[in-house]
Amino acid sequence: MERPVKDGILYVQHCKFGKRSWRKMRAQLFAASPSGVARMEKFDVRDDGTALEKTSLRRCARRVIRLSDCVSVGPAGTESCPKATAAFYLTTTEKSYVMAAEQRDEWITQLCQLAFQGAKEAAQSSARTQPSPAVPMEENSLYSSWQDLTEFPVLVVRTDAAARCGLHGHYLLSTLPQSLTLKDPQSRQPLLTWPYPFLRKFGQDQSIFSFEAGRRSDSGEGTFTFSTPRALELCRAVATAIACQQQSKDAPDPRLFCAPDPQLSAQGLEPQPWGPGAEEPQPSPPLGGAQPTSH
């Protein structure tokens, strides 16, 4: 008989008609074994106010999260949580969860061990087959792959624009250097692309990221809203990409300047930029934080 490596009470955040609420559940973590895969099992509970060991539990349909599908786990510090708890997120290839627990760090540590230990052991086994490097090296605990930094699992929140484009369910939203791209979560094929100059506005609120697309976008104009525990990180990535694109746009082209002429220098004249409006270079307009050029 399988025994859970961790057993306790969790609160799972639900969103219905735009209103967030917390559902109390009992959760159990199981390690991979001949009897089953590494997973989290959740059950609805009814608490009569007694201690955890004597809590009155009413088991409903068992909900299972396969930890092999886990993409990321981490603290979610901006959430308003039930008393004496702290929030964390659990993102899989199928869905993003926001949960809260009294021992949040213990849950995060145990989830990471069960979800990612197999991949780590495989990497270590592969490393043992390679010749040892001449220089001692240490693992970088801050390492993140390029996809970790640019791809965000999201859940579509229904809007008129999303319904018009037939969007529903889970996707990957990728912050590329030139555009914001929506991808299929399995094949990672691009489905919709919004060049940054075609975004009128964008912003986030807790676990919600939203932007307004201009009429020149492939999707047409309208507001698109996504739920993700990494909403703040996603919003910052978009702002950074727009700022970089704006800086590249404002950088002077060296071809617009004349080559120095010794005769002009001898007369005290300096080479001048040529081109329309070059006499008095105008300062570039401020980015405005979350309002790229409207199209």
What topology emerges from the helices and strands here?
Layout: E1 6-16, E2 19-30, E3 39-44, E4 63-66, E5 70-75, E6 86-92, E7 96-101, H1 104-128, H2 146-150, E8 151-157, H3 160-164, E9 170-175, E10 179-183, E11 190-195, E12 199-205, E13 208-213, E14 222-227, H4 231-250, H5 262-266
Antiparallel strand pairs: 1-2, 1-7, 2-3, 3-4, 5-6, 6-7, 8-9, 8-14, 9-10, 10-11, 12-13, 13-14
Fold and architecture overview:
- Keywords: Phosphoprotein.
- This protein has five helices and 14 strands.
- It has about 300 residues and is of the alpha+beta class.
- It folds into two domains: about 120 residues, Pleckstrin-homology domain (PH domain)/Phosphotyrosine-binding domain (PTB) (PH-domain like), CATH 2.30.29; about 100 residues, PH-domain like.
- The protein has a seven-stranded antiparallel sheet with strand order 4-3-2-1-7-6-5, with helices on one face. Strands 11-10-9-8-14-13-12 form a seven-stranded antiparallel sheet.
- Strand 13 and strand 14 form a beta hairpin.
- About 25% of the residues have low confidence.
